[in-house]
Amino acid sequence: DAGVIQSPRHEVTEMGQEVTLRCKPISGHDYLFWYRQTMMRGLELLIYFNNNVPIDDSGMPEDRFSAKMPNASFSTLKIQPSEPRDSAVYFCASTSTETVNTEAFFGQGTRLTVV
Amino acid sequence: LAKTTQPISMDSYEGQEVNITCSHNNIATNDYITWYQQFPSQGPRFIIQGYKTKVTNEVASLFIPADRKSSTLSLPRVSLSDTAVYYCLVGDLKAAGNKLTFGGGTRVLVKP
Asked: Which of A43, A91, A101 comes nearest B93 by C-beta?
């Protein structure tokens, strides 16, 4: 398996524009997590899914953020409208109840810059 | 997940052993102790996990005392490439409502 695949790797956008980040989890994994990482706030959990269903979105900062998982092999994180303070590295991770407990596999991340 | 406390940073030299201790006083009976490593510009990577006593793999060793209120990650003979942030997590992902939450981590700098 190629691991967790995120796209794009880098995104530069203007304030007010819509941004969509994409994630393909490892095949067979039933958990998917979205994180945001900044120097100031560290690695923050935004939302996670189990069997394509959002379980906990308490980490989503504002209504401008939304995440979907239409099927087991694809998830999106959307920011609309984007703001400069959204600039960060966004990671997607997946795991399975069949793997070692609390072992998750992370993608390479998407570095988002909002100007 | 249970709250964890670990040092913010540690410096070491090549060839030395690095030990990072994590405190988790309110660990629950079913909780596992897991360590992740993150290199710059990469996502965290699972290193090792344990429940009690000692666990060793090709990367590190994990020492867990009987009361499980702390754990120590040991990196033997570090090299410059071991410079990274190391995160300690405690929890049971398979328990309902649990989730993978990272703390601040320990920034390890290996010097030549």
From this structure: A101
Tell me the pLDDT tens digit for each residue of B61-95.
Answer: 999 999 999 999 999 999 999 999 999 998 877 66
A7-66 per-position pLDDT tens digit: 999 999 999 999 999 999 999 999 999 999 999 988 999 999 999 999 999 999 889 999
A48-87 in b/e form (b: 16+ CB < 10 A) is: bbbeeebbbeebbeeeebbbebeebeebebebeebeeebb
Cβ pairs bridging A and B (under 8 Å): 66
Whether A104 and chain B come into contact, CB under 8 Å, resolves to yes
Distance (Å, whole) CA B61 – CA B48: 8
